[in-house]
Amino acid sequence: MKAHPVTPAKLSDSELDEIRALIEQRSAIFFDASRERFFSTRIREYLEEQGIHTGGELARQIRGSSTEYETLIERLLTQETSFFRYPEVFDALEKKILPEVQERKFWDNPRTLRIWSAGCSTGEEPYSVAITLCEALKFAEAWDIEILATDISRRALRHAERGAYSKRSLENLPAARLETYFTASKHGYQVKPRIRRMISFVQMNLAESVYVGKIDCIFCMNVLMYFSEQRRLSILRRFYDALEPGGYFLLGHSETLSHSPVQFEPVVIGGYRVYRKPGAKPAETRRAAALAEGAQ
Questions:
Q1: Which residues in the chain are classed under CATH 3.40.50.150?
Q2: 13-27 and 66-76 helices cross at what angle (nearest 10)?
Q3: 154 closest CA partner among 190, 205, 118
Q4: Taking the mean position of all CA atoms in its chain, how far away is CA 102?
Q5: Would you write out the chain's pLDDT as a tens digit for each of its 296 residues?
Q6: Helix and strand element counts for the chain (H, E)
Q7: Torsion of CA 150, 155, 160, 165, to 10 degrees
Q8: Residue 163 gets which letter from DSSP?
Q9: Which residues of 139-164 are buried (b: 16+ CB within 10 A; e: fewer)?
Q10: What distances in angstroms separate CA 193 from CA 62, 68, 162, 182, one per listed residue?
């Protein structure tokens, strides 16, 4: 008996626009003209995977079901990441940012260090940050450290919280790091508990205003491209406000703040451009304040 060919899903431009508008309405995530090919391809693939025949049918389903909507968002958001994906970023963290934090906060009591991985995906970035802190921070045990790792994807966060990774995803790590920070398992490696405890994983949509406290450094790699220009500006202002004076903001290689009205100071470290919030007090001023407080 001859099998009937699968009928391709129908997807018109108006249906694509409707789905795009629904996504922006619910999550503020916006796929603009520069990502049109990616967006239409992913939607077509999703229709075929789910056995949905038309774009209109998909629009009705995501209107009526949060589960369907979240499944679609998972499919659209690229989760491509790896440990120490951009080595220059972690060199900047180790050689420039952390030494400045240590000098600036040496006299603080308690000494707090908070880093935000905004759009942490499946966890490789915040775990890479944690490893860098362990290796670069002098007397790490004397610091109150928190790495806040946020993402909109529940599935990605569940993966990150488990801290389990395949051998292939860790093949570029030196053997010494694998032995120090991971435990071998049947299917790969497990992050050791002391590294896992440094990180708080939280579901968050960056477009929503949520108080996160003061932060010393924010990683936001290849995330802002998912928002409209107006939303990006609003998010950048929130990042700026959340940063401690002298704190750093890190973007992906293809991203820039060159035309942003937010007043970050660009700093080039080893060929990689980072952004600094101005206004940090000199270490001598902080020491004098600490001594004066102790004398009271």
A1: 87-289
A2: 100
A3: 205
A4: 24
A5: 444 445 567 789 999 999 999 999 988 999 888 888 999 999 999 999 999 999 999 999 999 888 888 889 888 886 678 899 889 999 999 999 999 999 999 888 889 999 999 999 999 999 999 999 999 987 778 899 999 999 998 889 999 999 999 998 898 899 999 999 999 988 899 999 999 999 999 999 999 988 999 999 999 999 998 899 999 999 999 999 999 999 999 998 888 887 889 999 999 998 899 999 998 665 555 554 445 455 55
A6: 12, 10
A7: -150
A8: T
A9: eeeebebbbbbbbbbeebbebbeebb
A10: 38, 34, 11, 9
Q: Which residue has the tokens 């499944």?
A: 71
Other C-beta atoms lying within 10 Å of the C-beta of residue 129: 25
Q: CB of 261 within 8 A of CB of 237?
A: no
> Which of 194, 201, 176 minimizes the C-alpha distance to 133?
194
Q: Helix (H, G, I), strand (E, B), or coil: what is residue 117?
A: strand
CATH number of 87-289: 3.40.50.150
pTM, 2 dp: 0.87
In Å, how far from its chain's centre is CA 162?
17
* Alpha-carbon dihedral angle through residues 210, 213, 216, 219, given to the nearest 10 degrees: -20
β-strand partners of 210:
none
Gap between the Cα atoms of 31 and 39, Å rounded: 7
